Amino acid sequence: MTESSPQPTERARRAVAEPRASVEVTGEHSQFRLDLERIRFSPYFSRLSAVTQVIAQPGAGPLIHNRLTHSIKVTAVARAIAVGFADAASPAHALAVEHGCDAVVVQAAASAHDLGHPPFGHLGERVLDRLARETLGLADGFEGNAQTYRILATLDVTENAPHGLNLTAAVRAATAKYPWTRFVDARSLPAGPLPRGMRRVGGGVEIAKFSAYDLDAVDLEAARRGLPPLTQSLECSVMDIADDIAYSIHDVDDFYRAGLLSQGAVAREFRGFIEDAAGLRALDEAALGARSAPPGAALEALRRKLHRSDAWVASDDAFADAVDVVADDLVDGLLASPFDGSIAAERALSSFTNRWIAHLQTSVVPAPEGVVRSGLVTLDRGAWHEVEILKFVHRHFILDRADIAMYQRGLSRVLTRAVKGLTAWITDDVDRHRVPHRLRELVDLATEGYARLRATRPDGLPVPEASEVHRLGIGRGVIDYVASLSDDQALAVSEAIDGRPDRLWDIGQNL
């Protein structure tokens, strides 16, 4: 009989006990490092190098971020924040002592946080959610964070567990940015503001972001045992802030390199707000959104949105200061000289990026008590507004461009063809025996999950009818399959299903 490992702490506990021979490490910290290695050696992690962040690499060059380079940078920022908490002079030191903030747990969560992103970035997430709910009848649809948790808990593999990577409870909890399912009982929610990822619609609550599908909810609940409902662990909060910091900075980096940020257009918007803030406040919502809206109207719309959604931190003075800071450093600084690939341009961009990362990762402070819109830590008021302004720049000046919108509509059709084509194939009584082996396995795994859900009937989760188990298994299996493809694989699968042989051999054995 194989000797068992020493009794783990609750944070280091795994869903399946592993023999000592397979885990030649002892101590909580070493168990977390083993988790980090399992994540980084995962094929799902490697796949992120071929998944779009915002701009696809073939159209913008190899220096543009993909999901892997983004994850690596989030991990570096998250580790720096967590290590900083060990300093007794840190404003969050006492919080870290009270709740525990292991830098390796934070690194593991940061490395894993984007594993569930499907092909084509956030566009793919929206398209798969629509297809999952409207075409495949999956009530909890698709969500990138929930897909990440599904990979860690069910889809990926390790030697000593039947499903998933069998990570420690602390690491699993740290990946759950939105620690609930899509089936939160509205009666259990606070009467005031809701956590990020939820919003009130009419008389109900819409759950836009969540970290586990119904199939994986029991695992998430076990990982979070002892944590307050609807609240991130401290390590998760650190990872979440690091994600925000990296995202806000390196998207500016990408668009500057690609020549997509027009200094004139950005300067016009910022100058309009700075010079006529009072006049813009007098405009009604219709005038702000009109095509003829004056310069600065989009920033004014952002100011109002922040007050509506985050009154706990929104401040007109802090917003105005953040606009001034970003205008000086980005608009009149970095963007004043177009990126030309020279050493001087690289040095200017590196200086901008390093300066902002250093500033933001040292601006993390304990969140005010009782604020459900925040985790246990947040950015201080000034840095919080600065990040919102930086994110506004790429959202307003890049994502709404007609050429990008046209490209995204095409990618939407690619995913739609893939999902509908694979679903038709695996339900074809004549030809389903020839579907890719991996797809059959994923359908079987999901079907087993729905059957288990029906047998155990966990509280708060919808229980499928017996006649629905296989249909739901097919739907979730197809979504799991398509979501695990790279951008190029999704294109190749879609074209092959559509009868176009151009890229047939690009698929190879990766089906």
Automatic annotation (TrEMBL):
<dbReference type="InterPro" id="IPR006261">
    <property type="entry name" value="dGTPase"/>
</dbReference>
<dbReference type="InterPro" id="IPR006674">
    <property type="entry name" value="HD_domain"/>
</dbReference>
<dbReference type="GO" id="GO:0016793">
    <property type="term" value="F:triphosphoric monoester hydrolase activity"/>
</dbReference>
<dbReference type="Pfam" id="PF01966">
    <property type="entry name" value="HD"/>
</dbReference>
<feature type="domain" description="HD/PDEase">
    <location>
        <begin position="63"/>
        <end position="257"/>
    </location>
</feature>
<protein>
    <submittedName>
        <fullName>DNTP triphosphohydrolase</fullName>
    </submittedName>
</protein>
<dbReference type="InterPro" id="IPR003607">
    <property type="entry name" value="HD/PDEase_dom"/>
</dbReference>
<keyword id="KW-0378">Hydrolase</keyword>
